[in-house]
Amino acid sequence: MPNENTSLPYQYPEHLRYTLETLPACCGVYIFYGEDQTFPLYIGKSINIRSRVLAHFRTPAEAKLLRMTSRIDCVETVGEIGALLLESQMIKNQRPLFNKRLRVTRKLCSLRVSESSTRIVFSNETDFSCAEDLFGLFKTRYAAIEQIRDIADQQRLCYGALGLEKLSSNRPCFRYSLGRCTGVCCGMESLSEHQQRLKNALDAMRIRSWPYPGRIAIEEHSASHSEFHVLKNWLYLGTVKTLAAAKALQMSTAHFDRDSYKILCQHVFKQKGLAITLLDGE
C-alpha cells in the first residue's frame, strides 16, 4: 500500500463505518470499491476480514484509498490457503489501482545451470513447471544478471565462465589477478567444479518441478464444510465445493504462475495433514 504525502489531516472514514457491521470476522478476501463499482481500488486477504479492514481504517498512510472508497465487499473462504490463492487470482484478473504486488507477470526469467554453462531462460520458451536445473524466479533479465553477479562476488566465481564478460584466449580473467576468481578461466579449477559451486550457492532458489502427474485438489475444511482448491503445474484453476466438481474443472490457460508456486511451497507443502487428491490418475 503506497504512502501518501499530504498536508490534509487524517480523518477516520465515517462514511465507511457501517461496513464494519456487515463484515465477518473470518478468513477470506476483501475488496475496496470506488464510485465506479466495476473495478476495485484494492484487494486484500486476511484470516479475520473485519479486523484487517479495521486496521486499514486506523492507518493515516491509507487516507487516500479510504477517501476514494465507497463500498467494501468480501468473499469468505474456508481457510487461509483459499484466501491466498483467491487474492492472487483476483488481483491478476482485476488489476486494482492500489495493489502493486501479485500483478500478472507473463514472462519470468530463471537461471539454468549445467555442468558446462549458465544461461538465462524465459517462461514463454521453457516450461518452468517441469524443467530441471532452474534457479530463481526473476521478473527481468537485469534482476537475474544481478543475482549472478552477487553470487559470483561471494563465491569467487569467474565472470567469463558465467557469460558476464568476454575472456581472452589462454589468459586468465582480470578478476583472477585480483584474487576474486579461483581460476576456472586458466585451468586452476575445472568447469564442472565451478558450476557445482554455483549450484550449491543457488540451492535455496532451486525451482521445484510439479510433483504430480496432473491436476490435484487440496481439501481445506472448517467445522461446517470443505473447499477443494484445484491446481496443475503450479497454476491455480479455481475452488469448488465438492470433489466431483474438482474433477470437472479443467485448465483454460497454460503458464507458470509465480505466486501460486510460492503459496504452495510456503503454505501447503510445509503443512502436515492436508488432504491432496490426484485428479488425473497415478
Automatic annotation (TrEMBL):
Give an example GO molecular function: hydrolase activity
Stored CDD domains: GIY-YIG_UvrC_Cho
Would I find Transmembrane among this entry's keywords? no
Q: Where is the GIY-YIG domain?
A: 25-100
GO process terms (BP): nucleotide-excision repair; SOS response
Q: Which Gene3D superfamilies does the record match to this protein? A: GIY-YIG endonuclease
Q: Which InterPro entries does this one have? A: GIY-YIG_endonuc, GIY-YIG_endonuc_sf, GIY-YIG_UvrC_Cho, UvrABC_protein_C
Q: Does the keyword DNA damage apply?
A: yes
- GO cellular component entries: excinuclease repair complex
* Keywords for this protein: DNA damage, DNA excision, DNA repair, Excision nuclease, Hydrolase, SOS response
Q: Which NCBIfam families does its entry note? A: PRK10545.1
- The protein here is known as Excinuclease cho
